[in-house]
Amino acid sequence: MDQARTTISKIFNGEPRSYTRFNLTQNMEGDNSHVEMKLSSDMDDEVEANGVGENTNQHNRPYYPSKLNQRSPKTVCGCVIGILILFIIGKPISGIQKKDDLFCLSVFPPCREFSSASHQAGSTGDEALANKIMGKFKTFGMSTWTDEHYVKIHEPGSSNNLVLFRGNVVGTTEGYLAYSALKTVQGAALYAHYGRAGDFKRLQELNVDINGKVVLVRAGLLSFAEKVSNAASMNASAVLIYPDPVNYNIKEDTALFGHVHLGTGDPYTPGFPSFNHTQFPPAQSSGLPSIPAQTITIRQATEIMRCSCTINFSCYLLSLLLLLIMEVKNVLIQKKIHNVFGVIKGYMDKDRYMVIGAQRDAWGPGYARSTVGSSLLVELARTITDMIKNDGFKPKRSIIFASWSAGEFGSVGATEWLEGYLTSLNLKMFSYVSLDEVISGFDTFKAAASPLLYELLENTMKQVLMEPMGLSHSAYPFQTFSGIPSLSFRFTSSSKAYPFGTIEDTDQNLERYTSYNTLKLAKTAGEVVGLVTLRLVHDHLLKLNVAKYTSVIRNYVSQIRSKVESRQTVSLCGYMSFLGLLKKAQGSYDRAASALVSAIRNSDLDDMEQCRIINNRIMRVEGSFLSPYVSPRESLFRHILLGSGSHTLAALVNHLEAIKAGLESADIDQFKNQFALATWTIQGCANALAGEVWDMDNEI
């Protein structure tokens, strides 16, 4: 124990109960800014990270899913720019570049070792990379294994999909959208900006008929699948997606690839794994679209707009009266894919583990999409195993390194693995960190995470711009399907979108987007992950702050209460008792979180058995927010706070809006049922956090 403390103290700062600060005197704009990176290293910090010292009954500064605190974006971005500039210009940073102070990667090796011109899911190139990564793990002395899945994916047919305008083919259509409906449709074109729900609502307000239209939308802001789902809900006949030059700096004929499954994993084995030709009755995901969708190039979109209107690409709404014909003829095929794993086993709680994962495949070169992440994965494994061999570092808990295949088709490899261990993973796996798309620019640092990880991330890098975790984040199924606290972060650009899903995702282009500092940024990203990892696997108590969910729940309860109490919601006036039950469930969670803080304060944290009991209570929280009342086949993302579907608190808020507006979709009885089930899910989470059955505070 003493040796482990000494080792980790050296890694973090050399002395116990200390922290490193560094001041940045100038950022890119010449303005003064300040950044503090704090990394404490002993028991006091363990207690604070689990809520001691913070009044969980005061909510003057609530934490929301989309942000850590109320700092302005300008301040946050300025501070992050300062960090990056110091790395770029090569000045030493206390607590980052010195191995004696903190976790430090060596000079990061070129990522090209894991680059490949062709490594689509299930291809020989994909398999070669899998073998290379497996070989590296074995060289490091790690225990390794693989799993294989037979999954169904879409590939282009023998001839390209077609888009006809005025009876003529509009350019070449080499890109495609996997899992699109396979149909030929025709209809008048309708421009709908980004295809957001608000964009379609605006069209309705302008009395524009969407029914049967071929909707033309820009890429960006939300996933392709969400755009198509929004269009289908408005009875559009098809969707065309193009990269607008306002957002993308790519060639006019560059094709765009993606998928439109409103979910993750193999959509033809929803909720269960596709291990070893597993035979089940025919099934398909409810997230598969009913309408066809296709990407087109800038040149194709320009031709359509030039022939139909005089408004340029920056227009917001535009009705195009000429006819478009669209034919999608992708081919559904079965592919064998492999996930590759290596593990560093903990010396004390080896049956408790975190996972660090990276997508391995890509549609094109995929340099930023998969090569950088795979390189980081291997380098982190090498660095930590070296610490164990050379520095005597002993992680208390295990670390699994995972290389996923078929990520381009919606985290297929990762989700199939999660589905294979659905009932047990969140009992043993306490965190997931994604390395996908960690670098696509250099002037903005963003992160998406479980509220349980907010404080750990904030303590690792004091200024962080948080964004909601959504379908486009590869960590999303871990968080919302399996109930595992997850983290995804990225260095990105605040101007043009990076050309993911195109042949322009190359090492040369990434260098341009990062101002020729890709390797330095990769090293920085690796060190951030390394620091987070060491805190999660070494400290006696898990660095997961259960108190952070109190504000998230309270925020939803406040929204629901304001709508229920609204005079305009007359039809709900008789159901105030339901709101009372929800508030009681919220109170139960608040008290359970406070009780855990008290238990930590009053416990001997040198007692490993006592720490394990407390950690077990902490680990139950995220998984308990998964609704037990919905089928994973129908609603994959079951998390009632961060997931999607009618079971979520966000859906309750939206349903109240529908009731208030008198919409046809409103259903009072259905709302009451959803309300009751969501309420009991929160109460169940409070019960799980409370610990033993005799300690539960159940007022419902």
- Cα separation of the termini: 44 Å
- By secondary-structure content and strand pairing, the structural class works out as alpha/beta
Described by strand count, sense and barrel closure, the largest sheet is: 8 strands, mixed
Q: Widest sheet: strand order?
A: 1-11-13-12-14-17-15-16
Overall, the morphology is: globular
Number of helices: 19
Beta strands, count? 17
Content of β-strand: 15-25%
- Rg measurement, Å: 25 Å
What do the pLDDT scores average to?
82
Low-confidence segments, given as residue ranges, are 1-44, 52-101, 310-317
How much helix, percentage-wise, in residues? 25-40%
GO biological process, one term: transferrin transport
Domain Peptidase M28: 339-486
InterPro entries: PA_dom_sf, PA_domain, Peptidase_M28, Peptidase_M28B, TFR-like_dimer_dom, TFR-like_dimer_dom_sf
Subunit structure: Homodimer; disulfide-linked.
